[in-house]
Amino acid sequence: MSFPKNASSRIGTLDKKWDVIIVGGGITGAGIFRDLAGMGYRVLLVEQADFAFGTSSRSSKLVHGGLRYLANAQFNVTYESVREREHLQKQYPNLVKPLEFLIPIYDQYKHGASFFNVGLNLYDIFGSKWKHGSYSLEEMDKRYPLLNKQALRSVLYYYDAEVDDARLVMRVISEGISHGGIALNYCKANTVLRDNTGQVDGIQVVDTLTEEEMELHAAVIVNATGPWTDELRSQVVAGSVIRKLRGSHFLVQRKRLPVEQAFTLFHPRDGRALFIIPWQGMTMVGTTDLDHPASYEREKPEPFMTSKEMDYLLTAVNTMFPTAKISETDIISSFAGLRPIVTMGDMAPSKASRTHRIFADKNLFSIAGGKLTTYQRMAADLIQRILPL
Questions:
Q1: Which of 103, 192, 261, 318 qualifies as a cystine partner to 156, CB 3.0-4.6 A?
Q2: CA-CA distance, 383 to 377, in Å (whole number)?
């Protein structure tokens, strides 16, 4: 199917019946879309804004195993993530590229180098590669004269990977289109439709550019809207399953904080792991991990970095690079994304599980949780649940 150039007739050209309709044009929806289209199903993907508009363009730009998950005993998450990282680097070598990380170990840290080496050994075993070690303090002094040397005991290194998250989403969607799928942005799913037995059998959509409305039907409706999962699911079943956690970052000029490798550091206040990452000619600092209350969304529809988060990140940077004296005036830009964490009570945000879950509600299948790195595993699990159609 080809769409006319006249936007006023975009959704008017759509077929009314599909095998699967996917709501949500982030990395999760994109992965499901590509795989189903590749299997020969008639699949439609709709996104109310730009593709990758939400969480999938506001991440830390990492494809990583997540060392901190090991500390929280989430071994399955780390294993799956490391394996997926290795696969993605082979699958998309021009997008997913190796990135060296440094971990300076200080006396005041809760754990010493031996503790981190155990985790890094597991990391390498999971990835079937031996890619970690240590640098001498003399070498680090030459490379990073701004690095805090007081009480510095050792510096470890390991490898993860970086990615332009939005570009990855677009690549995956384009692959789905090449397999015959149809993807439409600025097309909002407003209302869930049901048959006479109460089962979900379609959605009512609106073209947000023209306000044209249309009813579309499918054997299965997939809800892949991430942090906004509850908004569509609540039309079918009561209760919420998503805890929105905000992660904020800021960027400074590379000359103000010159790093050639990424740094893993631990905040002096709460010990949380943070990253300092070289990114497209700048240096990126993040991330936070805080509940995002509904009052914030009413204030601003898009998530934003608060002044407290900025101070929190500045404190971390200036503890590790004290002579750099990074301040608010050095910040070029900031961004924040929402993590769609499956609700687990009052657990501290940094300890909440990043595993994904699938909720089947009267033929509406909602997938929530997970992370960018494991999107292909998430897609495979969802497809296994809905087949055969």
A1: 103
A2: 10
Residue 352, phi then psi, degrees to nearest 5: -65, 140
CA atoms within 13 A on the CB side of 166: 8
- Cα(306)–Cα(334) distance, integer angstroms: 10
The predicted model scores a pTM of 0.94
CB-count exposure of residue 59 (10 Å: 0-12, 13-18, 19+): buried
Instruction: Scan for tokens 């897609």, then name that residue.
Output: 379
Q: Which residue's entry shows tokens 């070598």?
A: 93
- Summarize the confidence of residues 145-161 as an average pLDDT: 96
3-state SS record for 286-321: ECCCEECCHHHHHHCCCCCCCHHHHHHHHHHHHHHC
Domains of the chain: 7-56+166-241+352-386 (3.50.50.60), 98-162+243-344 (3.30.9.10)
